């Protein structure tokens, strides 16, 4: 915010004013770090909003039988993955090259990649490895090859479609910059959201046949989930669950985190600098420990966009309102409702304190190994401290690794998210504090593999937290009853729902 203030000043002919303006950011920075946390209400200490429940939760005792049931894996639900119903075949002749430009975060890009493969198959085209746009929120410029194992991707799909890492020399002019400065005949800009396969055959195939190339931008949610041939649905599933694996160094770091969670041996500093090399030997003589991955989706964008009250007082309300005005010009449907209305409808993201109370009510005790998967938490440690009180064995990437081990992913939001995704897929239980792309992707992937995944009942939790007089026993009973069928039980996809969140029956068969 300060840097923005510093760089929004316009040129002025007088040198003294220029010097003053040049120094403003530095003075602001100095005084901010020196004292004035009030300028940043998210840095201020946050008092617990549910003190009555928190006191009870801190003294909770969970019966052994409840813990055993909580940690037990899902029973066989009668479904299994089936993406290879018939032998895939490559078309005899490619109609041309398909380029796609994907925006959004890691999981939105992941869905776009799956759809791009499907579109290439529909058109009998050759797919160019998708281009990932610069992430506008996290400023991450990571490419496909920085995140995903491209050789594995091509090899798994080699019998389904042709894939090239880059365009041949004759098409080298077809770049992101080329399409950003003028209207081009090879760019498909008007692909509707959830377009049908027929739409692509009618509108994109002629461009391919005329120019040998079609570049689709934007390309996010541009293929329907309904009325799509079975083989195309299977192919999308094959991409998502088999072809897309992370690059080796992401998997290595993820394996190190998983091993340290399963076989606790102290801090990263106590282990030493060779931990990544020694990780495979860590569990030879120890019994593995179960752990939960919690995706704490509580960043500033999320908090501001929800228009809910998070207990930071008038200063926080004003700061979030100003942020909404700057980012979205105040155009938010939620801002028309009161906090109580939003909470009773389940439209407020849970704070770290609230998700901690949910986990405690479900039966997780203070010996639970909890891995925190999150990029930036709005309010930082001030917000997380209550969750840490409830779960003192909480870990994250920073607590489990040395700086040198994290250096390849430092400051790269997509790679950080990839590590969290990998660890989340190997956890005993996964839970997300609020719905979103990460939540949806993990729910789908873990459903595909029949792994336990807790889906918070947002409406129930919102209503429970509105009741300031509720006692722990009543709260706990309501939470347990409200989540009995939200722990990984398979749900069949309904029309318009995503196959990436609900893989059955499109990607799975009855066993």
From TrEMBL:
One of the protein's GO biological processes: fucose metabolic process
Q: Does the keyword Lipid metabolism apply?
A: no
Q: Which UniProt keywords apply?
A: Carbohydrate metabolism, Fucose metabolism, Glycoprotein, Glycosyltransferase, Membrane, Transferase, Transmembrane, Transmembrane helix
> Which Gene Ontology terms cover its molecular function?
glycosyltransferase activity
A GO cellular component annotation in the UniProt record: membrane
Domain of life from the UniProt record: Eukaryota
Q: Where in the cell is it found?
A: Membrane
Q: In which pathway does it act?
A: Glycan metabolism
Q: Keyword Lipid metabolism on this protein?
A: no
Regions crossing the membrane: 12-31
Instruction: Report the InterPro entries cross-referenced here.
Output: FucosylTrfase_pln, GDP-Fuc_O-FucTrfase, GT106_glycosyltransferase
Question: What membrane topology does the annotation report for this chain?
Answer: Single-pass membrane protein
Family assignment from sequence similarity:
Belongs to the glycosyltransferase GT106 family.
Q: What is this protein called?
A: O-fucosyltransferase family protein
Q: Which organism is it from?
A: Lupinus luteus (European yellow lupine)
> Where is the organism placed in the taxonomic lineage, from the top?
Eukaryota, Viridiplantae, Streptophyta, Embryophyta, Tracheophyta
């Amino acid at each position: 915010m300060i840097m923005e203030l510093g760089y929004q000043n316009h040129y002025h002919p007088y040198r003294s004013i220029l010097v003053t303006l040049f120094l403003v950011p530095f003075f602001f920075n100095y005084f901010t770090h020196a004292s004035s946390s009030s300028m940043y209400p998210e840095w201020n200490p946050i008092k617990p909003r549910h003190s009555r429940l928190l006191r009870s939760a801190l003294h909770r005792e969970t019966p052994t039988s409840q813990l055993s049931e909580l940690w037990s894996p899902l029973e066989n639900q009668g479904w299994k993955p089936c993406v290879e119903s018939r032998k895939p075949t490559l078309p005899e002749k490619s109609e041309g090259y398909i380029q796609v430009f994907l925006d959004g975060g890691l999981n939105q890009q992941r869905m776009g990649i799956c759809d791009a493969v499907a579109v290439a198959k529909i058109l009998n085209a050759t797919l160019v490895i998708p281009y990932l746009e610069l992430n506008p929120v996290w400023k991450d410029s990571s490419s496909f090859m920085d995140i995903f194992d491209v050789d594995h991707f091509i090899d798994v799909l080699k019998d389904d479609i042709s894939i090239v890492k880059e365009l041949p020399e004759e098409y080298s002019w077809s770049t992101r910059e080329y399409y950003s400065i003028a209207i081009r005949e090879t760019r498909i800009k008007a692909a509707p959201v959830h377009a049908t396969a027929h739409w692509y055959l009618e509108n994109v195939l002629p461009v391919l046949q005329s120019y040998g190339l079609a570049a689709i931008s934007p390309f996010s949610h541009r293929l329907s989930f309904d009325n799509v041939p079975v083989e195309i649905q299977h192919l999308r599933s094959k991409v998502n669950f088999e072809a897309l694996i992370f690059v080796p160094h992401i998997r290595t770091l993820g394996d190190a985190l998983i091993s340290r969670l399963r076989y606790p041996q102290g801090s990263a500093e106590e282990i030493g600098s060779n931990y990544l090399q020694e990780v495979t030997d860590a569990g030879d003589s120890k019994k593995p420990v179960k752990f939960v991955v919690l995706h704490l989706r509580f960043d500033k964008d999320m908090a501001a966009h929800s228009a809910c009250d998070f207990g930071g007082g008038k200063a926080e309300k004003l700061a979030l309102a100003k942020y909404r005005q700057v980012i979205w010009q105040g155009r938010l449907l939620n801002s028309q409702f009161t906090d109580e209305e939003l909470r009773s409808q389940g439209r407020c993201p849970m704070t770290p304190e609230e998700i901690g109370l949910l986990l405690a009510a479900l039966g997780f005790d203070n010996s639970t190994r909890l891995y925190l998967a999150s990029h930036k938490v709005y309010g930082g440690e001030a917000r997380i401290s209550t969750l840490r009180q409830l779960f003192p064995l909480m870990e994250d990437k920073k607590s489990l690794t040395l700086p040198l081990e994290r250096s390849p992913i430092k400051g790269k939001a997509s790679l950080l998210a990839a590590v969290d995704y990998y660890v989340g897929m190997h956890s005993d239980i996964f839970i997300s504090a609020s719905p979103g792309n990460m939540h949806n992707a993990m729910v789908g992937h873990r459903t595909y593999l029949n792994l336990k995944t807790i889906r918070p009942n947002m409406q129930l939790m919102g209503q429970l937290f509105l009741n300031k007089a509720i006692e722990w026993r009543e709260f706990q009973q309501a939470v347990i009853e409200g989540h009995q069928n939200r722990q990984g039980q398979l749900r069949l996809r309904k029309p318009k729902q995503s196959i990436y969140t609900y893989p059955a029956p499109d990607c799975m068969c009855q066993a």
